[in-house]
Amino acid sequence: MEEKVRREINISRLFMHPHIIRLYEVIETTTDIFMVTEYAESGELFDYIVLKRRLHEDEARKLFQQIISGVEYCHKNMMVHRDLKPENLLLDSNYNVKIADFGLTNVMQKGHLLKTCCGSPNYAAQRFFLANHTPGLKWIYAAVVLFAGVYTIPSHLSPGARDLIARILIVDPTKRLTIPGTPQHPWFQPYLPRYLAVSPTDTTQQAQNIDDDIFQHVVRVGFERNHLVESLCNRVQNEGTVVYHLLLDNRLGVSSDYLGGAEFQCRGLCLSIPNHDGSTSQSSASNPCPLGEYKEL
């Protein structure tokens, strides 16, 4: 259990996306580990679906757009969640999605496939059960895979939704609709917010962009300037960076201008950062932070 928690902490520290639950701080004692995270006031998507019984297609589209954006962000940063389900999709006070529970998340490597079968069986694709080599059961699993592409789509769905679902459920992975290709589908496009219409920024680029207004505010309340920018560039969690990100999230929220905000577009911040040899380096929008590499897991 401790390994699962520490894996989740290490991975969550890297993420900064409007639809991924934010980890602000970790407090560790001799007996407990406390994770201070973003508050998802409206609870699990699972409970919301049970309550509503059926979501209107426009509302389902909005949630689906947010989920795809968060998942694409994870994949762009070479992370795979491996346990996506309604119970791990939380909702904030405005019923926006927050992807949570990264305990089973793993790092991908280009050209290599992950081999561990994990996640929740009730949500697993049927073909995953072929990994079980129990004698006498192989023919059952083979039959499941054979008929994996046989299903019924509810008749109340629009033609566009039916087509999208059919493309996602294609058994052959070479023909199946991909995460990057999903936003191009006609059903996905209506009412797409501007901040979701562009490819998500990776964590290294985000670490190099600092909001000048909020940074100056944090410095004015007593945090040392150079130490704060070094901590932000290296994604180090301390009191100063927690204050910075809380203020940033409170100002930005989730709006149509999210990716147009200063978090993703540094406005001329220029700081002197001491190098190991005693000289100084300048950090600015044109010369990204020289300490902008995040720590490896």
TrEMBL record:
Region called Disordered, residue ranges: 277-297
Gene Ontology CC entries for this record: cytoplasm
An example Gene Ontology biological process: intracellular signal transduction
Keyword Transferase: yes
Stretches with biased composition (Polar residues): 277-287
The UBA domain, residue ranges: 209-249
Pfam families assigned to the protein according to its UniProt record, in alphabetical order: Pkinase
SUPFAM superfamilies documented for this protein: Protein kinase-like (PK-like)
Domain Protein kinase: 1-188
GO molecular function annotations of the record: ATP binding; protein serine/threonine kinase activity
Keywords per UniProt: ATP-binding, Kinase, Nucleotide-binding, Serine/threonine-protein kinase, Transferase
Protein role: CIPK serine-threonine protein kinases interact with CBL proteins. Binding of a CBL protein to the regulatory NAF domain of CIPK protein lead to the activation of the kinase in a calcium-dependent manner.
PANTHER family xrefs: KP78A-RELATED (PTHR24346:SF82), MAP/MICROTUBULE AFFINITY-REGULATING KINASE (PTHR24346)
Annotated family: Belongs to the protein kinase superfamily. CAMK Ser/Thr protein kinase family. SNF1 subfamily.
Full protein name: Protein kinase domain-containing protein
Species, as recorded: Gossypium darwinii
Origin organism lineage: Eukaryota, Viridiplantae, Streptophyta, Embryophyta, Tracheophyta
